[in-house]
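Every protein is a chain of amino acids, and every chain bends into a shape of its own. Below is the pair of lines this work produces for a single protein:
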Amino acid sequence: MAPSRCTRAPTSASSSRWSGYATNRKLAVEDAIDADPLAAALRELMAVRRSWAGSAAELLRMFADGRPGGPAGIGIESARWPSNPRTLAGRLRRAQTFLRTLGIEIAFSREGHAGHRIIRIRANPGDIVSTVSVTDVAGGAIWK
């Protein structure tokens, strides 16, 4: 009986395929975050902070005010920027999976007797990629 695929040792061809998959996945996550101004701003914020907790309204106000520790020049006047706290929370929920891949955990909860909605954001600094750069080598773009 021939050995099954599960019992074979990985070959160099399969490991190179896996490496290519991992690289493509990382680039897809970066593209998804770069396409969303809120996710990109949150990535920049968490590159300089370890954690943040508060309401969606407080997070929206912090980005609008450009407070210290927050990213500068994120283009909150754009039509793609959330206009209210409810929209911001929904956009965070949609970006949550991509941000988790970069080491940014987002948790939504209710606290107190009145059930105030709290967003907790925690970052693992070693996993956060703040930017993606492109270098042109011999006419071909290479992502770093």
Notes: The CA atoms of residues 118 and 124 lie 20 Å apart. The chain has one domain: 21-143.
